[in-house]
Structures are given as C-alpha cells and as structure tokens.
Write a structure and sequence with these properties.
Elements lengths: L2 H9 L5 H6 L3 H11 L4 E5 L5 E5 L2 E4 L2 E2 L9 E3 L2 H7 L11 E4 L6 E3 L1
Antiparallel strand pairs: 1-2, 1-5, 2-3, 3-4, 6-7
Length: about 110
C-alpha cells in the first residue's frame, strides 16, 4: 500500500476532508497515517500550529507530499511537551459547521 494512495483516497472521499485535516485535525491525520504506517514520525512547524508526517524521508499532510521542508528550521520532530499541545487539537473544537437552514425560520443550523 502506498502512502500517497491512502492520502489521496481519503482526501477525495468528501469535499470537507481536506478542511477538517488542515484546520484543527492535522495531528489526528498523523495518527491515522501512523496506524497504517507505524514508522511515521510527527513533526510540528515553527509556528506550532500544523503537524505533518515524516515517512521514509518524505513529508505528508492531507494535501499530499509537502515539499521544501527544512528540518530544524521550518519543522521539528514532535517532542513530549508538544504532544500535550497537539493532542487536544480538533476541527470540531475550533470551527462551526453549517448544516443548512431551518425549514421554519430560515436561520442557519450551526454545530
């Protein structure tokens, strides 16, 4: 099984998948990849707001292969102190989804 095949299949499964895994769910995406490819290593960017996965010398997120990664500058391997930061990240904890409008009052239904 190729890692890019898995990533592309998941990303193309729904139009919201990319958004979910880029806006809060990036660490959960790493854990998904690690479950399939146990040698994956998590890396966090310098701004500490995005996690990517190192697998066999290449870097990935839900968009596919991440190019031009500078280890030690742009990204660093996730440390124990950073894990406590990222393990609480989630799309649902950060964003609101609109499920359409109420059929009676036409107000948006938000979750």
């Amino acid at each position: 099984m190729e890692i890019l095949t898995v990533i592309n299949s998941l990303r193309e499964s729904d139009k919201y998948i990319k958004t979910i895994f880029l806006e809060g769910g990036c660490y959960q995406f790493h854990l998904f990849l690690k479950a399939l490819f146990p040698e994956c290593k998590a890396m966090i960017n310098e701004e500490r707001d995005h996690v990517i996965t190192n697998y066999q010398g290449k870097y990935y997120d839900i968009t596919g292969e991440v190019k031009n990664v500078s280890v030690g500058y742009d990204f660093n391997y996730l440390t124990l102190s950073n894990i406590s930061l990222v393990e609480g990240w989630s799309f649902s904890g950060k964003k609101i989804l609109s499920l359409g409008e109420c059929q009676y009052c036409e107000e948006p239904i938000l979750i």
